[in-house]
């Protein structure tokens, strides 16, 4: 056993709590286990199941991405890692509790809310946050089971991958999505979807769109979706040309959009329009409900930015989805930058006082962040690996100065949770839930059917049983 410096010369593994069992937290556990320090890790998760936005964000028709879960299994299968699910940091356990049981705490709580969009009328009935809709179609237990899909024409605001996910799911038919893992309530909801036109709006131009080429081209693969781009929306300035030269991805996105702009429009049932240079100015309402969208035409200013032209256009839509970015929640007992939506940090060390010189005054001791809560809600799953490596390198640099935990015995925290009566789930419980979901899919030849209700997830996981 490696001696853990900082534990009074003790001869025990470093005890680490990681709060949030999404990709960032799991990669952090992996990085710790690959270091030459012996660590014993507990991964806390507020949901009964792990994997964060891979389970509750990635679109159901992206099975290859959902398959990253298989690689993450290898980390959680290791005996040095325990999953403690269905435990909400801030409600069930706090920082003082964690300090009792662990030498260091890493927060990887990600992001799950919608960034606010300040446009008049945005709060009308029929204006929805993308994060809420994503949670619905991905079977998140904490959102309503039904979703109103009675609009024939829908607007999606934003030109990132989440906007494309939302637009694609709205434009596909329920039957097209049935082979995926969507739960029965989502299939029933999507079957009733009346949307015939989905309009995606970007404030800037094709070279400023944030989607990845693969995700963009995928729109065209549906036998039910006609993707339409107006040739008038293809425009570049010097800044845009530079962006194309500097990024192969940007250039590929522009090439795809150009091809779509010049082809004939086919007769697939659902039309998905990608509009550029249209800045949302107002959501129009009637009887408290969305009745249209007013946009202002913009034009490039030479640098890749845009300015308004004063020309407005009204679009006949009855629902609006805001896909302008995710936002993290503040974490009790940690500083929080409301503007950035992140925990202030330096390479993962939680920053308390920017102007202090000594580490003791500068940082919240023995506390770290990784993933979207560290960096902000941008980037793919793979990017959280680099975050984790950087954070773990800092933690290991600091470890020799750690004040050791008072109760490092791994059983002590289990007793604490049991005494509080928390029905926590475990990694063995995930295997049971996973087998249950697969068995639900089997009769229909589907890989799995997701269980939605928290109670049902708990029942299948058999809490408190390792
Ligand atoms: C709609 C959508 C689609 C996406 N699609 C793709 C894609 O196709 N491909 C791709 O590579 N990337 C995709 N991404 C990006 C990817 O999901 C993120 O890069 C990644 O999930 C960020 O990882 P994270 O661990 O930081 O956060 P998260 O995945 O959000 O994980 C955080 C975890 O912390 C838990 N948690 C939060 N608060 C607490 C608390 N108080 N107590 C206990 N636990 C808590 C949460 O429940 C969650 O499980 C998508 C993102 C979104 C939003």
TrEMBL record:
Gene3D superfamilies: FAD/NAD(P)-binding domain, NAD(P)-binding Rossmann-like Domain. NADP(+) binds at residues 203-204, 215, 379. It catalyses: 2 reduced [2Fe-2S]-[ferredoxin] + NADP(+) + H(+) = 2 oxidized [2Fe-2S]-[ferredoxin] + NADPH. Its cofactor is FAD. One of its GO terms (molecular function) is ferredoxin-NADP+ reductase activity. Keywords: FAD, Flavoprotein, NADP, Oxidoreductase. Residues 15-177 form the FAD/NAD(P)-binding domain. Its EC number is 1.18.1.2. FAD binds at residues 24, 45, 53, 372, 379-381. It holds the Pfam family Pyr_redox_2. It is an enzyme of class 1 (oxidoreductase). The keyword Cytoplasm does not apply. Belongs to the ferredoxin--NADP reductase type 1 family. This is ferredoxin--NADP(+) reductase. The lineage of its organism: Bacteria, Bacillati, Actinomycetota, Actinomycetes, Mycobacteriales.
């Amino acid at each position: 056993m490696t001696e853990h410096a900082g534990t009074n010369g003790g001869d025990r593994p470093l005890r680490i709590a990681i709060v949030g069992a999404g990709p960032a937290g799991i990669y952090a556990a992996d990085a710790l286990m690959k270091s030459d320090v012996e660590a014993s890790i507990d991964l806390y998760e507020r949901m009964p199941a792990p994997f964060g936005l891979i389970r509750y964000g990635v679109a159901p028709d992206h099975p290859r991405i959902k398959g990253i879960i298989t690689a993450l299994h290898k980390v959680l299968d290791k005996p040095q890692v325990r999953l403690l699910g269905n435990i909400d940091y801030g409600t069930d356990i706090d920082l003082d509790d964690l300090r009792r049981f662990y030498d260091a705490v890493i927060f990887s709580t990600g992001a799950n809310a919608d960034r606010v969009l300040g446009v008049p009328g945005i709060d009308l009935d029929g204006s929805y946050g993308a994060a809420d809709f994503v949670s619905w179609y991905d079977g998140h237990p904490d959102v309503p089971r039904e979703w109103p899909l009675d609009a024939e024409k829908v607007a999606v605001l934003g030109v990132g991958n989440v906007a494309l996910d939302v637009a694609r799911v709205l434009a596909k038919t329920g039957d097209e999505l049935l082979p995926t893992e969507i739960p029965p309530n989502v299939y029933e909801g999507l079957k009733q979807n009346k949307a015939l036109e989905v309009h995606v709006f970007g404030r800037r131009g094709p070279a400023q769109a944030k989607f990845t080429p693969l995700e963009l081209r995928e729109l065209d693969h549906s036998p039910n979706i006609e993707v339409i781009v107006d040739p008038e929306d293809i425009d570049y300035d010097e800044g845009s040309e530079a962006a194309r030269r500097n990024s192969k991805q940007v250039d590929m996105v522009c090439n795809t959009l150009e091809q779509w702009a010049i082809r004939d429009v086919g007769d697939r049932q659902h039309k998905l329009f990608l509009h550029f240079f249209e800045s949302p100015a107002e959501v129009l309402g009637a009887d408290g409900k969305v009745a249209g969208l007013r946009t202002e035409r913009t034009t490039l200013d030479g640098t890749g930015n845009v300015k308004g032209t004063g020309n407005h256009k009204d679009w006949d839509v009855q629902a609006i989805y805001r896909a302008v970015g995710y936002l993290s929640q503040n974490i009790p007992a940690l500083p929080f930058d409301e503007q950035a939506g992140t925990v202030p940090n330096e390479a993962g060390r939680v920053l308390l006082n920017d102007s202090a010189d000594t580490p003791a005054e500068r940082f919240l001791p023995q506390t770290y962040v990784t993933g979207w809560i560290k960096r902000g809600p941008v980037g793919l799953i793979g990017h959280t690996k680099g975050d984790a490596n950087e954070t773990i390198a800092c933690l290991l640099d600091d470890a020799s100065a750690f004040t050791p935990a008072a109760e490092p015995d791994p059983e002590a925290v289990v007793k604490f949770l049991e005494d509080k009566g928390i029905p926590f789930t475990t990694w063995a419980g995930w295997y049971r839930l996973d087998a249950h979901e697969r068995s639900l899919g089997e009769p229909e030849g589907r890989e799995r059917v997701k269980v939605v209700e928290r109670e049902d997830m708990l029942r299948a996981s058999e809490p408190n049983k390792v």
